[in-house]
Amino acid sequence: MKTTFLHGAGIAISNALVTLGFFFTGVHSSADRLAANQWLGTLLILGVCGTGLTLAVRERRAGLEPEKEWGFAPAFGTGVLTGLFASLLGILPNYVYFALINPGFSDVLGAMQRSALEAKGLSEVEIERMMSMMEKFTGPAVLTASGAFMGFVWASLVALGVGFFLRAKPAAAGS
To answer: Which of 17, 18, 50, 82 is deepest in the core (most CB within 10 A)?
Structure first.
């Protein structure tokens, strides 16, 4: 449990640093910049998650006694538990970011959504109706809660891959 907690904390801290990096470089200052660099943020967050989960699973696997069984289920379980800790520990820094550091982020998200709806060719009436609905879901608490949930979902998906690739114990040295 200590391994999964520590690696989950590492993932949460790394994700917070990625978010702050995007804030300080101005990516979160405008809808155009956010839309253009959203792929980079996704890749960085998934890379951090994949690395953290891999390290957690490898450490847990290396700490087993030689006679203990290891397979997909314990590897996947370790990854999911690590992802759960990462998601839960990421709640506080995310809320602080959305509520205190960058309270205008929801406006940037709204502008990005508006641009996407305009690009689809929707009428102004339809856009306004959808935007008024979306505004209910852009407060700091809702962004934080949805981010924690989706972070756990993505971490679980990454844990599937990590569990698959790290399901076998490495051969013992000298065998």
So the answer is: 82
Q: Which residues contact 41 (CB under 8 A, 6 or more apart)?
A: 18, 22, 27
CB 143 within 8 A of CB 98: yes
Q: 171 φ, ψ to 5°?
A: -65, 140
């971490």: which residue's tokens?
155
Q: Given pLDDT bands bounded at 50, 70 and 90, which one contains residue 24?
A: very high
Cβ(115)–Cβ(35) below 8 Å: yes
Instruction: Give the global pTM.
Output: 0.89
Distances (CA, A) of 95 to 16, 30, 54, 75, 130: 11, 20, 27, 31, 25
Alpha helices in the chain (DSSP H): 2-24, 31-62, 72-89, 91-96, 105-119, 124-135, 140-165
Q: How far apart are CA 126 and CA 69, in angstroms?
A: 57
| Annotated domain spans of the chain | 2-165
Rounded Cα distance, 102 and 140, in Å: 10
Cα atoms in the 13 Å half-sphere on the side-chain side of 96: 9
Please determine, for residue 85, whether its predicted confidence score (pLDDT) is greater than 60.
Answer: yes
